[in-house]
Write a structure and sequence with these properties.
Structural class: mainly beta
Number of strands: 9
CATH architecture: Alpha-Beta Complex
Helix content: 10-25%
Order of helices and strands: EEEHEEEHEEE
Strand content: 35-45%
Number of helices: 2
Oligomer: single chain
CATH topology: Nucleoside Triphosphate Pyrophosphohydrolase
């Protein structure tokens, strides 16, 4: 299992910094909108990975962030299984660099994010973020059907969530 982080930076206007993944050819997130983050490097903790990835992708240094939950992704390809540590951030320093090699960055009103092309399971944890839910454990089971990855099961804090 891989470990990764994902962060939704929130500005004072109630917008999330989102990344439209359109730049890399071989990208499991191709065409989707996601927060910023990425995979752990050897010996990194979740918060170290979070801060490094946000800096690399945005040019911003986080000064205030909050752990929100762990999302376990189970995929038909076990190499894609991962634990994702989810964060939100409301404080940072530096100048936002909109030229990211991973995708195109944009500020999006939080209530409009679920209307973008996002993963089905992301809508579950985006709803939990909007509700200011306490830290949670969410398992998302994706299976490939007709060449498309489809969410087949979601479990939140040990209880099935309808998909």
């Amino acid at each position: 299992m891989r470990n990764s982080t994902l962060c939704y930076l929130e500005n004072a206007r109630g917008e999330y910094l989102m990344m439209h993944r359109v730049k890399k050819k071989a990208d499991i997130n191709k065409g989707k909108w996601i927060g910023v983050g990425g995979g752990f490097e050897e010996g990194e903790s979740p918060d170290e990975c979070l801060c490094r990835e946000v800096l690399e992708e945005t040019g911003l240094t986080l000064t205030e962030f909050q752990f929100r939950g762990v999302v376990t992704f189970l995929c038909c390809d076990q190499k894609s299984d991962q634990f994702m540590y989810l964060f939100t951030a409301t404080g940072w320093t530096g100048e936002l660099n909109m030229d990211c090699s991973e995708g195109e960055l944009a500020w999006v009103p939080k209530e409009k994010v679920p209307d973008l092309p996002v993963w089905e399971g992301d809508k579950i944890f985006l709803r939990l973020l909007a509700q200011e839910a306490p830290p949670f454990l969410l398992t998302l089971d994706y299976r490939s059907e007709s060449g498309q990855d489809r969410l087949t099961r979601a479990v939140l804090n040990g209880k099935d969530v309808s998909v």
